[in-house]
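chain below, 498 aa
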Amino acid sequence: MNHKAPLRLLLACFKHETNTFSPAPTPLQRFFRDGDTPLVGDAAAAARRGTGTGMGGFLEVTDREGCEITVAVVAEASPSGLVDTEAYERIVGLILDAARGKVFDGILLDLHGAMVTPAHEDGEGELLRRLRELQPTVPIGAAFDMHANLYPEMVARLTVLSGYHTYPHVDMAAAGRRAAELLVRTIRGEIRPVLAWDNRPMLPHVMRQGTHAQPNRSLQARCIELEQAGTVLAASVFTGFPHADIRNAGLSAVVCTDANEEQARQVRDELLDQAWENRSTFVYKGQPLAKSVAQAKSAAGRVVVLLDHCDNSASGGTMDTTGVLAEVLRQDLQDAVFYAIRDPQAVEEAIAAGIGNEVTLSLGGLSELTTTGDANPPLTLSARVRTINDGAFRLRGPMMAGVAISAGKTVVLQAGGVQVVVTSVATEPHDLAYLMSLGIDLDRVRYLVLKSRVHWRAGFGSLAADVIECDSVGVTTSDYSKLRFERVRRPIYPLDAL
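prediction:
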């Protein structure tokens, strides 16, 4: 093959982190800002070029190398329940149609690695199986989220693979660049990559996966050290997404070396052994909600961050539980901001009332939390309408910088000492733009209450004088005993004593 000519590459992004316990549906419309109109071709490339995303990293390399690219689709939905079969088949079909009957030198895929459909507990693996039927020999590279639940069949169909090394995920573009550069080097015959995958029977809690703290900080630092030293081409520890009742949920590792299978296996096992030895520090232990809010109220300094993490939309939460908000109001926190409750009907009622006017709403409590057995009552809230906003803004970074976001129609309500943000669309606040777009002045905020787990640290971490984790109800519950795991491999820690 003559590679003096521009390399011809097929690019695609198809990402979803599936919480199999979440009641939030995942139709086709969840993947595209314009409803069911797919983002494809030049428009898809333009939407991701220069952004802090895996696809942004791909495009940086392909532009630099002068490649001829075809972008099949950019489809990304925030975490929720099982991906609808219609949505899955439509998006997979766009990728396969782009690959069918055409000659490419390589394929680059920006994937999450934890997609589940009614028919496929390994959604990405099924995509790769079908892609390999069409392109059996073409090199395929992929960038994966740190919360990927990987399967050996998925890895076996890839040529190169690279995962994020940070949580919050501020290195998505770096992972994309790494995968793209390795794929280009492979096509040009400069390297002969081999991959070694394995896992350990453990479900690390998401609240203990952040790279701001141990044990994951050291694990990811070791991966970075190995890559920078040139010991391996890529080293990835995937802490996994535990809110998925599928066989391979949990921690795994993949190491890529240049034609050295033994070294790949040795480094992989080193990383997995390090994770297993520290498995107890991946366990989360909470406390009663009233105690957490009281602890925040007595904390010195500002800003005190309270995390309503059991209803985190970026882990599949419904973003409509009101337990933490109710306790914040009960304990009368002042100079507080709460982001956010998702309630489109309440938003419309506040808009109808108008800025400056008082309104009494039934807020939240829209979803039945049948998988956890928790009640999810609405909160009756009397408040003044402060702000009405279209909910559209662009992220500042460092996480996903440049990406356009829509929280749908949004209002800010003043309830006592708390500014309550109510959105029409679920989205995790991880960027200053979430508040700045609403005109909220952080210099006047003492308490910042966020429906977030770890990603909030990307935008707000440097502001936090103290951090309080608040346990409440929600499908991203910290209590695994509320979740009925039936398909995950057993025994597995900490569900079982190992």
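The longest strand covers residues 379-389. The longest helix spans residues 261-277.
thats it, cya
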